[in-house]
């Protein structure tokens, strides 16, 4: 597996944050931190291959709202809603893995490693286990004190490329970085409820969808008269569903994109050449993905004395 030397070309964007974030932040305060995270993710990955997709989705939904501050991990309490209750987050999974890692870290190094960094490190390790790039991430984030479902405004799967790019551009991302980040769908999944509008059995078939894929999804999702029960899961890469590779881009070029936004990436004039480039060069995709993930993980973070180091990732310290 190639080790990518990531160049942080965007350092100038966040000089204050990057003064505190650094690779190996816990080298002295908790030398075993990254090993504890890596071993826990590896144990889970052996039995649950969806863990990579779950962590990527959690990572994105955390970082895209208030920056990577672990606010997605906070449970709602009586009188206090949390981001977990926002519609895009209600089906997020694998919070218990973060809990397991946090318990182990609290035993090894009490009140030292933030929940925000745990999520960053666990996602990086899960990507590598699935065959994706191995890259170093700076750590030193602090945990946020706010988790408000009304602030959750992540790009929707029904968006056009221009609509999605408006969301990413507002966070400082280029179109190429957006296309690279959406490559996480190579190990992703969705549910029938987000795809029905494109299927022939629920109305008019989306003409941009391959008829064979339409037929396959109809068998899974049912019809308007007889929809499948329990909103079944659907993998987004119909070929190498659990392998982190560039097959996603090849699939959407064959009109086999499951989500509307995925298919539009391959058709829109602004993005189709980027898609073609990633489809042809898997190493280029992985390199661009790693860089974009580091950038996403470093936007609007809490550092220094801001926030706190949560003892339990689900609960603010003052609620203990």
UniProtKB/TrEMBL annotation:
Substrate binds at residue 155. The keyword Heme applies. It is found in: Secreted. Ca(2+) 1 binds at residues 62, 65, 67, 69, 71, 83. Pfam families: peroxidase. Residues 20-317 form the Plant heme peroxidase family profile domain. Keywords: Calcium, Disulfide bond, Heme, Hydrogen peroxide, Iron, Metal-binding, Oxidoreductase, Peroxidase, Secreted, Signal. Its EC number is 1.11.1.7. Ca(2+) 2 binds at residues 186, 237, 240, 245. One of its GO terms (cellular component) is extracellular region. The keyword Calcium applies. It comes from the Eukaryota. Binds 1 heme b (iron(II)-protoporphyrin IX) group per subunit. Its cofactor is heme b; Ca(2+). It catalyses: 2 a phenolic donor + H2O2 = 2 a phenolic radical donor + 2 H2O. Residues 1-19 form the signal peptide. GO terms for molecular function: heme binding; lactoperoxidase activity; metal ion binding. Disulfide bonds join 30-109, 63-68, 115-313, 192-221. It is an enzyme of class 1 (oxidoreductase). Heme b binds at residue 185. InterPro entries: Haem_peroxidase, Haem_peroxidase_sf, Peroxidase_pln, Peroxidases_heam-ligand_BS, Secretory_peroxidase. One of its GO terms (biological process) is hydrogen peroxide catabolic process. Its main location: secreted. Belongs to the peroxidase family. Classical plant (class III) peroxidase subfamily. Belongs to the peroxidase family. Ascorbate peroxidase subfamily. Removal of H(2)O(2), oxidation of toxic reductants, biosynthesis and degradation of lignin, suberization, auxin catabolism, response to environmental stresses such as wounding, pathogen attack and oxidative stress. These functions might be dependent on each isozyme/isoform in each plant tissue. This is Peroxidase. It comes from Acacia crassicarpa. The lineage of its organism: Eukaryota, Viridiplantae, Streptophyta, Embryophyta, Tracheophyta.
């Amino acid at each position: 597996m190639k080790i990518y030397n990531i160049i942080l070309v965007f350092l100038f964007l966040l000089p204050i944050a990057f003064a505190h974030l650094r690779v190996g932040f816990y080298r002295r305060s908790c030398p075993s931190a990254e090993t504890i995270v890596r071993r826990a993710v590896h144990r889970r990955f052996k039995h649950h291959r969806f863990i990579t997709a779950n962590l990527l989705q959690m990572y994105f939904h955390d970082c895209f709202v208030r920056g990577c501050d672990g606010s997605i991990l906070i449970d709602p309490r009586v009188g206090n809603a949390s981001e977990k209750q926002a519609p895009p987050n209600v089906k997020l999974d694998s919070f218990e893995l973060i809990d397991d890692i946090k318990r182990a870290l609290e035993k090894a190094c009490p009140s030292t490693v933030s929940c925000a960094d745990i999520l960053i490190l666990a996602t990086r390790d899960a990507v590598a286990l699935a065959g994706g790039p191995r890259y170093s991430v700076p750590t030193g984030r602090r945990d946020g004190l706010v988790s408000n479902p009304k602030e959750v405004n992540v790009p929707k799967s029904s968006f056009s490329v221009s609509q999605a790019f408006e969301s990413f551009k507002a966070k400082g991302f280029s179109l190429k970085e957006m296309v690279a980040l959406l490559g996480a769908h190579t190990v992703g999944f969705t549910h029938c409820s987000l795809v029905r509008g494109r299927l022939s059995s629920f109305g008019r078939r989306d003409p941009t969808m391959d008829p064979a894929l339409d037929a396959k999804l109809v068998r899974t999702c049912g019809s308007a008269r007889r929809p499948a029960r329990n909103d079944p899961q659907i993998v987004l890469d119909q070929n190498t569903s659990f392998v982190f590779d560039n097959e996603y881009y090849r699939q959407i070029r064959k009109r086999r994109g499951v989500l509307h936004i995925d298919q539009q990436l391959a058709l829109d004039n602004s993005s189709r050449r980027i898609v073609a480039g990633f489809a042809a060069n898997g190493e280029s995709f992985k390199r661009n993905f790693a860089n974009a993930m580091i950038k996403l993980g470093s936007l609007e973070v809490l550092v220094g004395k801001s926030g706190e180091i949560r003892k339990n990732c689900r609960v603010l310290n003052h609620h203990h």
